[in-house]
Amino acid sequence: MGHRRHFAVLVLVTLAVAGTSWWRAIEAAPAAPPLVAPDSLMATGLYESGRPGVIDPRNRPFSPQYPLWTDGAGKRRWIQLPAGARIDAADVNEWDFPVGTKLWKEFAFGGHPVETRFLWRTGPGDWVLASYVWNSAGTEATLAPAVGLPRVAEVAPNRYHNIPSVDQCRACHVSNRTEVLGFNALQLSTDRDPHALHAEPLEPGMTTLRTLEEEGLLTPSRPELITSPPRIAARTPEERTLLGYLAGNCGACHNRQTELAPLGLHWKHGEVSTRGADALLSLVAHPTRWQVPGVPEGESKVIDPRQPEQSAMLRRMRSRSAASQMPPLGTVIPDRDAVALLTRWLERQQPTDVREHVR
Hints:
By secondary structure, the protein is α+β, with helices and mostly antiparallel strands. It has two domains: about 40-225, no CATH class; about 235-355, no CATH class. The protein has helices at about 1-30, 165-175, 210-215, 225, 235-250, 270-275, 280, 310-320, 335-350, 350-355, and strands at about 60, 75-80, 85-90, 100-110, 110-125, 125-135, 140-145, 150-155, 160-165, 220. The termini are far apart.
């Protein structure tokens, strides 16, 4: 009996020591390296394996109704959702995408692809952002340096498209936790604005709110997005188009969730959908710290109804000086259509429309 007891104690001690070593080994094991963007666009999953240029059928094309202006670039976009996964649409204006979601956006000038940007959710709070630069023959795209690439394509005399750095990409996509900018309820609404600037055709097979809802890709289900699709509440068609443009081009930075919130320029897609014209009228005669050239110190206004040409908003949209241009990144020539639209809106405001807002 004594031998058995001694053996049992020895086994327990051995197991305890082994167990301690096992747990220590687990604790000491190095963490898995973070996922990174592959070296070639082909390896990201955009194309079918072994068939360059043939889009993988798992990747859904889509076209936002208010596209981002990028010096007149032609664009194509795709999204891939992991098999069996759904988008969390509990907050209709703040969708949460499942881990494994991938998005691509191709930029082309003169019909030739120049750059394809890649966005990949690799963890609950992690996104990989990368850009791929195309060769001159348009047959292959390779990973651009993290610091970006200047002058990859001439878009106007002595004006060049630049591939942004990863940090510049994060400035818009990650800083305020709105990683996916062009894939939301307003942008995919089936009640599309027929006057949207630089509108792209909604081609057969493209993803919309209707297809997402009908295929059960939103959780919880959002049938109201089909029966009452999102639409900007504006007083006129022109105003709807202007607000949509601001949502698509400015709302990623100018909203209530960023450090720019005190400026009062709240143009995120959910905000312009509900606030409508007030998103503009609230800025009439609103003071701005940016000094409009030629205006007395301290008297610059975001929107100046008495002197439309002196409005800071208009001046900054026209500018392509690094110190003053808006948007600050992504373009090297002003969007003349947007400038003309804002100018018309400013000139058509009547005193009765803005009197209550003027201070």
